[in-house]
């Protein structure tokens, strides 16, 4: 069974959501970030960057185990292996890739930095202003896209939606008020109400 090294964070939740959507069994391996378990040698052997999420698939290429880090890489690995969450239409596939990379290269880092600066004991206004403004600008890009399309790729729910959902559902962490982005709010609601997403966000303890 695929092991998901996990904490219930914006990047962490992406992976159980994808696995639930794909109908693939998995087990969560909790990683206590507060205790810095992600910096321990056994974890760094899986991800030298010392961050969750990571998966270990016992049935990787050639039937041998493989580990994968970086949430975007994990989502694409799962979509490829299990044949879902990427549109079959070639143009929609391009949109899915665009918005997936837009998330991991833009929304994730900017929201993360905005939230970090907002919570420092010393108020560093230039940092807060810069990263909040950028987070809002990126959210406006999503708003424009979601006013013209049901899902980020177009008509198909995809890895791009899952990637963005992790961060947009906690947008206030970055000082982004979603009242100004109604299409993003509707899209969040549509994702949150999917049964697979609810299973992933509210895992039933195994014992
Ligand atoms: N680009 C990475 C970001 C991963 C990341 O920032 N993970 C956070 C949790 S959301 C983490 O592990 N933080 C702990 C740390 O930085 O030590 C990805 O998309 O997987």
UniProtKB/TrEMBL annotation:
Domain GST C-terminal: 89-207
Lineage: superkingdom: Bacteria
CDD domains: GST_N_Ure2p_like
Record-level Gene Ontology MF annotations: transferase activity
Entries under PROSITE patterns matching the protein: GST_CTER (PS50405), GST_NTER (PS50404)
Domain GST N-terminal, first and last residues per copy: 1-86
Protein's UniProt name: Glutathione S-transferase
Species name: Kinneretia aquatilis
UniProt entry keywords in alphabetical sequence: Transferase
Record family assignment: Belongs to the GST superfamily.
